[in-house]
Amino acid sequence: MAAPASAVLDDEPSVAALIAARPQLSMHAFDGLTLEQVPLARIADVLGTPAWVYSAGAMRARLAELKAAMAGLPADVHYAVKANDHLAVLRIMAAGGAGADVVSEGELRRARAAGIPASAIVFSGVGKTEREIRLAITEGIHQLNVESAEELEVISAIASALGGRARVALRVNPDVDAGTHAKITTGTAETKFGIPYDDVPAVYARAAALPGVEPVGLALHIGSQIMSTAPYRAAFARAAEMVRTLRAQGLAVSRMDCGGGLGIGYRDEPDGSPAALAGAMRTAFGGMDLELMVEPGRWLVGPAGVLLATVVLVKGQERFVVLDAAMNELMRPAMYDAWHGIVPLAAGTAVGATTPVDVVGPVCESSDTFARGRALPRLERGARVALLDAGAYGAVMSSTYNGRPLAPIALVDGDRWAVIRERQAHADLWAGERVPEFI
Q1: In what order do the strands lie in the sheet with 25-28?
Q2: Is 401 annotated as a binding residue?
Q3: Which of the residues 58, 142, 197, 213 has an alpha carbon 20 to 30 A from that of 379?
Q4: In sequence order, what are the beta bridge partners of 410?
Q5: 88: left (phi > 0), else alpha (psi -120 to 50), else beta?
Q6: Per-residue pLDDT tens digits for 140-152
Q7: Is 258 known to be catalytic?
Q8: Is residue 266 part of an annotated ligand binding site?
């Protein structure tokens, strides 16, 4: 059974509160839910649903806010491409002065195609292939973040064979719990990421002695969707102590990559604070003569995106609201039990009395569920809704499971909008497949 209304109403923001917390959204009596100055119903009329819509203005404003918070620090912003890798998004980031943090050859090539110079790209990731390392070195990127002593040896061999020199930073695992979901925690000793803290001095000394590599500093990343500065302060303190340890051994350390992970308010709570993050960086690294960098992704683009969907039917004595969007579009609720606001596009629907319902998709998996016991206004067949804060880890994680084509993407900028990815045709689902003659 759906949860009783009393179990959800006290814990959940209203539709009005969700909109009020997002300056890029507004509700108009006639036009309904509007992103910047474009009614989302207008886009749904043209593209159909499901469809993604991004706000260019929101991305620009958030990048400017982050950069302003870092003012006075020797800190560069490297956008985490994995959050949303669309070329248009990368162009917006590049135009705002951000570099890129990439974790694959594909992301590196996307960043370069979007106009981000190699000198502004950091390559992270625990399992870089030889091909990816070779590409990073030949492109002359800003630095490779080394995840293990074993990887360091591979980079040295490849760089030496190429007759080049790779700038590397050692990723420290500070064994700090970020206090976030277990599946997006990356800074504890139990995870696969980084070099154990106590091993760093020996590995850094090894890097200084190896041919083909130039150790330039340290890197860390403790997780994603971090809402408190306490984990950052703890991790940065350990990193600063490691810098002092390495320098005391006569090793040169000039850079500190502070990672990303700053969270957003998926309900109506405040976002993680860039100013507080910058303050934690100043406290830990002020006066240490270090080049600093941050690698935000979700914070920059998450609130800038919505996923539009249409109610296919309501069933089970109005317990289940079935949408045409599914977990293959927005995976986060199924993977992380993530909460996303759901807002009707029509103004008249949005102000109706609420009842608790389960909002589900059409995919043949029980996990294809966006919300359980969610207090929503009455939604009838054909009603359209927006799933909020879908600009990060949304379209980039989409699949074609159940033979569902990838949804289109539109970009809004003021009162203008354009399609930046067409809806995939069904025939494209098998266009690259081959049936051998012996079948």
Answers
A1: 25-28, 32-35, 38-39
A2: no
A3: 58
A4: 53, 419
A5: alpha
A6: 999 999 999 999 9
A7: no
A8: no
Task: Report the C-alpha gap between 260 and 258 in whole angstroms.
Answer: 7
Measured CA to CA, the distance from residue 280 to residue 376 in angstroms comes to 39
In the block, tokens 């939604």 appear at 379
E strand or H helix at 415:
none
Spatial contact of 357 and 2, defined as CB atoms under 8 Å apart: yes
What is the amino acid identity at position 145? N
- 261 annotated to a ligand binding site: yes
Query: Hey, what are 331's tokens?
Result: 């995976």
Q: Dihedrals φ, ψ of 138, to 5°? A: -70, -30
Catalytic residue among 364, 431, 435, 439: 364
pTM of the model: 0.93
pLDDT value at residue 4? 37
26's tokens: 């507004």
3-state secondary structure of 223: strand
- CA 134 to each of CA 105, 109, 113: distance values in angstroms, whole numbers, following the listed order: 10, 13, 18
259 assigned ligand-binding residue: no
Residue type, 227: M
User: What digits encode the pLDDT tens for the residues 246-287?
Assistant: 999 999 999 999 999 999 999 999 999 999 999 999 999 999
Give tens-digit pLDDT for 150-159: 999 999 999 9
Distance of CA 235 to the CA centre of its chain: 21
Q: Enumerate domains of the chain plus CATH numbers.
A: 5-55+302-430 (2.40.37.10), 57-299 (3.20.20.10)
Please tell me whether 365 is known to bind a ligand.
Answer: yes
